Amino acid sequence: MKKNIKLLALIALGLAACEPEFDREVSDSGFYSAGDADFSNYVAVGNSLTAGYADNALYVQGQRNSYPNMMAEQFAHAGGGTFTQPLVDDNFGGLLLNGTQIADTRMILEFDADGNPSPVNLDETPTTEITNTLEGPFNNMGVPGAKIFHLAAEGYGNVAGVGSTANPYFVRFASSAGTSVIADAAAQNPTFFTLWIGNNDILAFATSGGVGEDQAGNINPATYGSNDITDPNVFASVYNSLLTALTANGAKGAVANIPDVTSIPYFTTVPYAPIPMDQATADQVNQGYAEYNQALSLFVFLGAIDQEEAQRRTINFQASTNNPAVIEDEDLTPLQNPLTGEDIPNLRQTTAEDLIVLTASSFIGTTVGGDPTKVNGVSVPLGDQWVLTPEEQELVANAQTQFNATIKGLADQYGLAFVDARAMLTQVAETGIPYDGGMLTSTYATGKAFSLDGVHPTAKGYAMIANAFIEAINQTYNSTIPIVNPGTYPDVFVK
After folding, report:
1. How far is CA 448 from CA 13, 14, 207, 428, 455, in A?
2. What gap in Å lies between CA 26 and CA 92, rounded to an integer?
3. 293 lies in the same domain as 440
4. pLDDT, tens digit, for every residue of 163-176?
5. Which of 185, 152, 187 is nearest to 167 (CA)?
6. What are phi and psi of 494, to 5 degrees?
7. DSSP state string for 11-45
8. Residue 101, domain member (yes or no)
9. What is the CB neighbour count within 10 angstroms for residue 171?
10. Does the keyword Hydrolase apply (predicted)?
11. Nearest alpha carbon to residue 433 among 467, 456, 400
C-alpha cells in the first residue's frame, strides 16, 4: 500500500491567470453616483474575511487585496474618502509577541522532487511584533478569529490577555487596552459601513471536526470554548447591538450572511474514500479487524446495538484505489467488553456523508513511526478532529440557519443592503462563477476562488465578494458604483 497520499498529485495545475481589461476604463468620477448613500467615511467591520486574510495568514498583499479596500477604491469614484488599514509589516505572514512567534507564516504551493505540488508554510521569520501598536483610527476593522460577541468585548485588544481573552491582531491597532472593536468602529462616525460577521461562530466548530460544544441555550459567552457554536439568542442580541452602534448617526450600510461549510475546499477536497489498497493488503487488514467485526454480532445478540448500527460499524477493505478511512465516531453507541468491562472503540469507516478536513490530507495513508502495521486511516483510526460527521454537520447547519435568519431580518429592519454570500459561494462550489477571462470555482488550488488554507478567498475571490457587496449596495441605495475585474487580481502563489 502506498505510504503517503499526495493530495494534489492528481490536480492539473493551470495557474496562469488571464488578466484582461474592461472595455470601458473607470476614470471619470462624475460618471458615477453615490445615490442615497454617503461613502465619504466608509468603515468595514468583521473578522478575517474583512481583514484580507488568505493562505492561513495576514500579510500586506492580502490586506491590500481585501474586499473592503477594493470597495473603497470604487467608492472613490462617487465621493468615497481615504480608507486606512492596520497593515502588518511584511508579506511573510505570522506574528511575534515579544520576539516569540505566535502565528504561522503564509502558505505557498511548492513542488517536491517528483513534481508533486503541496501547500507549505513560507520559510521566513515574521517581522510583525504585536506589541508595536499602531495609531489609528483605521477604516478596516476586520479582526481575524473574531466571533460575533468578540466584537463587543472590552479588553479584546489588551496584550496582557493574548492567549485567553484578547486577540493578537486587534492588539496591534486597538485605540486602548480596554476598548472593543465596535467601540473603535463607531467612534469614527462612519457615513457608510459593511458588516460581515458570524462565520467563526460555526466555522471554528466545523474546522476542528466538531471538537467543541453546541452552546444553544447558554447565553454566557464567557463560558464558551474556542471551538463552540454560539447560542442563536446571543448571536441575535449582539448583532442587533452592532447595528445599533453603527447606524447611530444615520449611517447606511451592507451586511452579508454565512456560507455553508460544504461550499469551501477545506471540507470538500479530501475524498471520503482516500485509501488505495491491493488485495493482499486488504486481506491482511481485514484479518486484523475480524475479531472486532465478530464482536459486533455479539452486541446485536445482547441488544446493545441493532443490526443497522452493526453494519455501519463493520470494517471491510477491498482491492481498490478508493477505500473509506477508519475513524473514531463519538456518536456511535458506547460499548463495553462484557467480560472485562473495557470500552470497545467506536470505530466505523467513512461514508459519502462525512467530510474529512483538508489538513488530514497530509497524513492519511502514512505510517506511524515508520511501522508498516500502523497506518493512519487504516489500522490507526482518524480521530474525531479530522472528520465532520453528519451529526456534527447538522449542528452547524441548524445554527447557520438561525444566524442567517437573524442577519436577513435585521438587514430588513434597518433598511440595509443584504448580500447573500451563502448563495454566492454555493454557486462557486456547484457551477462556478464566470469573470472576464476565466471561472472561479471551489476546486482546491486551481479553482482560483480560494487560497491555500481552503477557507479564505484569493484576491480574485475577494474581488468576487466586493462585487457582490457593490451590486447589493447599488440596488438598495440607487448608486452606480462600478464593480471590479477579478481577472486583474492574483490567485495562489507558486514557489
Report:
1. 11, 10, 21, 10, 12
2. 32
3. no
4. 999 999 999 999 99
5. 152
6. -110, 125
7. ---------PPPSS----GGG---TT---TTEEEE
8. yes
9. 23
10. yes
11. 467
Crossing angle between the packed helical segments 459-477 and 421-430, to the nearest 10 degrees: 140
In a domain, 166, yes or no: yes
Task: Round to whole Å and give the CA distance between 148 and 230.
Answer: 9
Range of the domain at 343: 275-349+355-388
Of 148, 185, 70, residue with least CA distance to 482: 70
Q: Tell me which amino acid residue 194 is.
A: T
C-alpha cell at position 9: 498529485
Cα separation of 398 and 139, whole Å?
33
pLDDT at 21: 36
- Inside any domain, residue 495: no
Query: Do 395 and 286 fall into the same domain?
Result: no
Q: Which residues of 223-247 are buried (b: 16+ CB within 10 A; e: fewer)?
A: ebeebbbbbbebbbbbbeebbebbb
- Helix 67-75 / helix 459-477 crossing angle, nearest 10 deg: 50
Q: Which three cell numbers, joined as nine digits, stand for 219? A: 447565553
- Here the cell at position 310 is 452493526
With CA atoms as reference, report the closest residue to 403 among 141, 152, 197, 181.
Answer: 197
Please list, in sequence order, all residues whose beta carbon lies within 8 angstroms of the beta carbon of residue 487, skipping any fewer than 6 positions away.
17, 18, 19, 20, 435, 436, 437, 438, 460
Distance CA 270, CA 360 (A): 8
Q: 365 in the Ramachandran plot: left (φ > 0), alpha (ψ -120 to 50) or beta?
A: left
Which three three-digit cell numbers place residue 386?
479530522
Q: With the CA atoms of 346, 350, 351 and 353 taken in that order, what torsion angle do they form, in degrees rounded to the nearest 10?
A: 80
Same domain, 400 and 377: no
Cis status of the peptide bond prior to 338, with omega within 30 of 0: no
Computed over every residue of the chain, the mean pLDDT equals 93
pLDDT at 83: 98
Q: Which residue type occupies 155?
A: G
Closest CA to 186 of 255, 134, 242: 242
Q: Is 284 found in the same domain as 379?
A: yes
Question: In the chain, which residues have pLDDT < 50?
Answer: 1-26, 29
Kindly state whether residue 473 falls inside one of the protein's structural domains. yes
Tell me the sheet residues that pair with 348. Answer: 327
Which residues are 323's β-sheet partners? 275
- Tens of pLDDT, residue by residue over 275-306, are 999 999 999 999 999 999 999 999 999 999 99
Which positions ≥6 away from 354 have C-beta within 8 Å? Answer: 272, 327, 387, 388, 389, 390
What's the start-to-end Cα distance of the chain, in Å? Answer: 30
397 and 310 both lie in a single domain:
no
